[in-house]
Amino acid sequence: MNELPEGWTVEPFSQVASYTTGRTPARANPAYWAKGERQVPWVAISDMEPYGTITETAESVSELAFEEVFRERVVPAGTLIMSFKLTIGRVATLGIPACHNEAIISIYPREGVDQRYLGYFLSQVDYTDHQDRQIKGNTLNQSKIDQIQVALPPSKEQARIADVLDKCRLGINTERAAEKTAEELKRACMRELFTRGLRGEPQKDTEIGLVPESWELATIGAHHAVVSGGTPSRGNPAFWSGGTIPWVKTTEVDYCVITETGEHITPLGLESSAAKMLPAGTLLMAMYGQGVTRGKVAILGIEAACNQACAAITPNDDAVVPRYLYHFLAWRYDAIRSLAHGGQQQNLNLEIVRDLPVVYPQRKDEQDEIVAILDAIDRKIDLHRRKRAVLEELFKALLHKLMTGEIAVSDLDLSALSPASTQAEEATA
After folding, report:
1. Using CB atoms within 10 A of its CB, is residue 270 exposed (0-12), middle (13-18) or buried (19+)?
2. Segment 78-87 mean pLDDT
3. At residue 88, does pLDDT exceed 70?
4. pLDDT for 277-330, tens place per residue?
5. Distance between alpha carbon 143 and the CA centroid of its chain, in Å?
6. With 50 as the cut, is the pLDDT of residue 76 above it?
7. Is residue 416 scored above 80 in pLDDT?
8. How many angstroms separate the Cα of 193 from the Cα of each of 274, 371, 376?
9. What is the mean pLDDT of the chain?
10. Domains of the chain
11. Residue 295: is it exposed, middle or buried by C-beta count within 10 angstroms (0-12/13-18/19+)?
12. DSSP 98
């Protein structure tokens, strides 16, 4: 640990706080997990949002488990908890009385130690040298936990440091909530726009549900060419080394305009594979991909190639505005994913993509109006996402520098984090 400011001390965790570990009632005993009149919330690491307050848990234990396994000892609301197995160093605060599993400790700071400060400090410790490697993953044993070296400034400075970091977390959480609200607004708008349109006309029933009576229904293939890309051999450096041609993977197809890619190929690599140059404005759909990737779309903002797991969709005529199709396919994401087939990994294919139904206004001005509404909401979402990312970087930097005494709270000007300045920035955005 680097030299600390005057007045700071370094003490082992065992002298800074007491702590207790939790338990997991036997899964083989259904009575421990049975639903009943008295259920006790049971916290797992997955319930712990970093630096968050836990107000609900995915699982609860029965009254019998509470009596026999936990001896009716509940961890009070307001207690700091930390994971010390697998995901090490994640901290949160209980917002409800609860029990927790054996991978989590409940922490009770001694007098003079600010609980918020201690939580932030523990979250930024490098636990690499403290960990024991186990078959099921890394863990800290009691001896290692006891020996964690905690840097402690005077108690008033602890509180000031915690206040600053709390303010950062509040800003991050505010932007996350605003982003979520904007995303919910977009979903509601898409549902309304793609089923009722903007002209208040009667609806008709189609294979995808009710849509405005004058709208057309066609497959993607009726108005678009749909092709896939390719992957040059990884074994030939001439296809990759020094490459300048952007090459898109499915993980980069994520409701965005793609302006850069993680990998590039050479002209020789392009020629060797089924990959082809795609113009800016091409709509891409991920056909393969684990988790939520399959079915997502993006638009190329640059000329690029893509791999064979992407479907590249380019218009043959001007019937459908490209960004209208982008938003429409985003709205149909769940329905598109359900069409995948195959073995262990279910995928889409070019035939499925070509046959996807699309409904659209025949008038371009109505398509453009719908696009303008949804683009505006996307800009709002992106604004909150970018602001949250900046605040996350600020938090990380402050967390390290404040905990090492490299900077003091008195050195900081955090007026930009005030609610008034945030609202003013949004008003001019």
Report:
1. buried
2. 95
3. yes
4. 999 999 999 999 767 899 999 999 999 999 999 999 999 999 999 999 999 999
5. 34
6. yes
7. no
8. 38, 10, 14
9. 93
10. 9-152 (3.90.220.20), 154-199+362-429 (1.10.287.1120), 216-360 (3.90.220.20)
11. buried
12. B
- Give the H or E element holding residue 66: helix 63-68
pLDDT of residue 421: 45
The dihedral sign for the CA sequence 53, 56, 58, 60: positive
Q: In which residue are the tokens 């979250």 written?
A: 123
In 3D space, the residue among 163, 176, 182 whose CA is nearest the CA of residue 390 turns out to be: 176
In one letter, which amino acid is 237?
P
Share of the chain above pLDDT 90, in %: 87
Q: What is the mean pLDDT of residues 174-186?
A: 97
Please tell me the distance from the alpha carbon of residue 275 to that of residue 51, in angstroms, as a whole number.
45
Q: How far apart are the C-alpha atoms of 127 and 146, rounded to whole Å?
A: 13
Provide the residue type at 361 as one letter: P
User: Which residue type does 87 have?
Assistant: T
In tens, the pLDDT along 346-365 reads: 899 999 999 999 999 999 99
**59 pairs with which residues across the strands?**
42
The percentage of the chain sitting over the pLDDT mark of 70, rounded to a whole number, equals 94
Tally of CB atoms within 10 A around 279: 11
CA–CA distance, 41 with 20 (Å, rounded to integer): 17
User: Could you give the CA distance from residue 429 to residue 426 in angstroms, rounded to a whole number?
Assistant: 5
Q: Give the pLDDT of residue 275.
A: 86
Pseudo-torsion of CA 328, 323, 274, 233, nearest 10°?
-90
What is the helix (H) or strand (E) element at residue 424, kind and residue range?
Answer: helix 419-428
8 A C-beta contact, residue 40 and residue 98: yes
Which structure tokens are listed for 376? 């505006």
Q: Let me know the angle formed at the C-alpha of 190 by 184 and 195, rounded to the nearest 5 degrees.
A: 135
Report the C-alpha gap between 225 and 222 in whole angstroms.
Answer: 8
- Looking at residue 114, its pLDDT comes to 98
Cα–Cα distance measured from residue 38 to residue 316, given in angstroms and rounded to the nearest whole number: 64
Instruction: Check: CB of residue 42 under 8 Å from CB of residue 128.
Output: no
Tokens of 24: 């997991």
When pLDDT is cut at 50, 70 and 90, the band that residue 209 belongs to is very high
What's the rounded Cα separation, in Å, for the pair 3 and 17? Answer: 23
Question: Cα–Cα distance between 300 and 248 in angstroms, integer?
Answer: 9
The structure tokens listed for 207 are: 């294979």
Decide: 405 and 4 in contact? Cβ < 8 Å.
yes
Using the 8-state DSSP alphabet, how is residue 283 labeled?
E
